[in-house]
Hints:
Elements: H1 2-12, H2 17-30, H3 35-43, E1 48-52, E2 55-58, E3 63-65, H4 75-80, H5 84-87, H6 113-120, E4 133-137, E5 144-148, H7 154-166, H8 173-176, E6 202-204, H9 236-244, E7 247-249, E8 260-263, H10 265-273
Bound molecules: zinc ion.
Amino acid sequence: MRERGERALMLQTGAGLAVIVLVLMLQAVAEPGRGASAALVAAYPVFLERIEGNSLVWKDGTRMPLDDGKGAKSLDQKLEDPDIEDMLSMPYPLGRTGVPPAQDFDPGRVRFGPMLDKMYGNCLSADIARKLVPVVWLPTKAGTRIMFHPANGAAEQLRKVSEELDRLPPRFLEFLHPAAGSYNCRPIAGTRRLSAHGYGIAIDIATRRAHYWQWTKPAAGKGPDDARRWRNDIPWEIVEVFERHGFIWGGKWYHYDTMHFEYRPELIAAAKAGGR
Ligand SMILES: [Zn+2]
């Protein structure tokens, strides 16, 4: 009885990912091969109900197909015209692994827009800014306010990230302050796709120490392929804090964006459960 009581308490106090992982391990046994989509349902319990055949079933009865039946897609096709399976198709590597990323391996860079639109709202057609809540960034070292979306616990998890980063030794401050931005309603440069920043679920840290695949010029005497060669200054200690609270890091993408962190608890939960 004591054990049961403790488990209930954990659930009540929202020990979040630990509970999600436990549920996933049980589901993985019941439904082998469904680890990543089970992680999706478990990571967004307010919105999502279950997987049924090829359908993601929402709490409000909405159904979205996991597989759109369009067959194998290139990375560009996945980015431009994804289904839910495409979004989950590249398993995010946790911790001090996954770098430099393999060619075209961009775990989390594929986003299924209709799902995010329904959970967070589409800022091009709805007033998202009004829903956002302030999170104090590095309470003792910066104290600035970052606007973030409260749905799915995103803002609450960012608050935990902020408090943990605040306790890191002073040498990390140059990577964290000033933060470079969070909510921004705009398409990704050169595309019509909405950035994760448009949903209020992404934050960029210090621009001065960032590397972005599009900014990088080939080294003297090297061809254009050298431009994409992975570069990074962001310390692992910072990445680990974000991952602990459900955020993925753009530094683990072949098309790297090392200042970018994005709240994607389904990918972190799938990684912890070993779900693929
Ligand atoms: Zn970003």
